[in-house]
Write a structure and sequence with these properties.
alpha/beta, Rossmann fold, six-stranded mixed beta sheet, four-stranded antiparallel beta sheet, 12 helices, 21% strand, globular, disordered C terminus, binds adenosine-5'-triphosphate, binds magnesium ion
């Protein structure tokens, strides 16, 4: 990993990418894509199905090697760094299907995630036999209680995650990401499958996290729900067929003809009124 002072813009951002190209056989999943996430911000990455959003997150987190292009994390180039090395440098992510240990409680998840960050060698013994989990220290407790509060999870702290509705599992995933004390969290469709109430709760938590005073944290939010992204993000990047077709403020994106054209062909929105509202009814499955 090398320092790249050549472009001041890159070092001013928590996460940056330039010229990212990914091919799957003959398919151009991403073509010369750039992206910037400033500190303490919520950035949206949107686009119709198959636009390349998940692929872009995989490139940023190190799971997918691009054919070309470069990635910087807090001004330092990480293009060749493993996902683990990037995680240590401050990238966290959540998955579309929460990957949780069903027998553990909400609090235990956060304690474990915090220990991974603080004492990496403890992880293996805790994982092999999570029930042998040592009682949290005072410092761990303080940190975890703060997170539970931030995420509105105090009420369910002692509940096993298996018993929780999807919306709460998503919050636990966000909590686990936060416990690793990242500088940026990549979120792939965190609202999918949630009803309106659960979505609103999650979005208000995102807003609180980005304003969190303790530490610089940014969120990169991949979402189908364009209305939610426009409401929450300070900057939005729009992909279509692997190409960055627009970037700008919510206002600029709302009025961008290329974005409108891309979305009017999208099933998600073609049944609803065209922009500017862009809201669509959530296909909620649970509270
Ligand atoms: N492992 C893979 N092998 C081959 N093609 C792939 C692979 N992963 C993704 N693709 C293709 O690359 C393109 C971009 O996929 P990607 O999953 O990044 O899109 P997306 O914007 O996340 O879509 P969605 O909104 O449906 O989640 C799609 O055409 C997809 O079919
Ligand atoms: Mg996707």
């Amino acid at each position: 990993m090398t320092q790249v002072p050549s472009d001041a813009a890159q070092s001013a951002h928590v996460l940056s990418a330039r010229g990212v190209t990914v091919r799957y056989g003959g398919l151009m999943a991403l073509s010369d894509v750039r992206l910037d996430v400033p500190p303490r911000s919520i950035v949206g990455l949107v686009g119709p199905n198959g636009a390349g959003k998940t692929t872009m997150l995989a490139v940023l987190s190190g799971l997918q090697r691009p054919a070309s292009g470069r990635v910087w994390l807090r001004g330092e180039e990480v293009t060749d760094a493993s996902p683990q090395a990037r995680a240590r440098r401050g990238i966290a992510r959540t998955f579309q299907q929460p990957e949780l240990f069903m027998g553990l409680t909400v609090r235990e998840h956060l304690v474990l995630a915090h220990r991974v960050r603080v004492k990496r060698r403890r992880l293996w013994s805790d994982m092999v036999d999570p029930r042998s989990l040592l009682p949290p220290s005072r410092a761990e407790n303080e940190r975890v209680e703060g997170l539970l509060e931030l995420l509105n999870l105090t009420r369910v702290a002692k509940a096993p995650v298996a018993a929780l509705p999807l919306g709460v599992s998503r919050l636990v995933e966000v909590g686990r990401a936060l416990a690793c004390e990242p500088h940026v969290i990549l979120l792939d469709e965190p609202l999918s499958g949630l009803d309106m109430k659960a979505s609103e709760n999650l979005l208000s938590v995102f807003a609180r996290v980005a304003e969190h005073v303790e530490r610089d944290i940014s969120l990169l939010l991949v979402e189908h729900d364009v209305a939610a992204v426009l409401a929450l993000s300070s900057r939005i990047f729009v992909l279509d067929f692997g190409v960055l077709i627009a970037t700008g403020t919510p206002e600029e994106i709302r009025n961008d003809p290329a974005v409108r054209a891309a979305y009017l062909g999208d099933d998600e929105l073609s049944g609803s009124q065209p922009p500017p509202s862009w809201g669509h009814v959530h296909g909620g499955v649970e509270a």
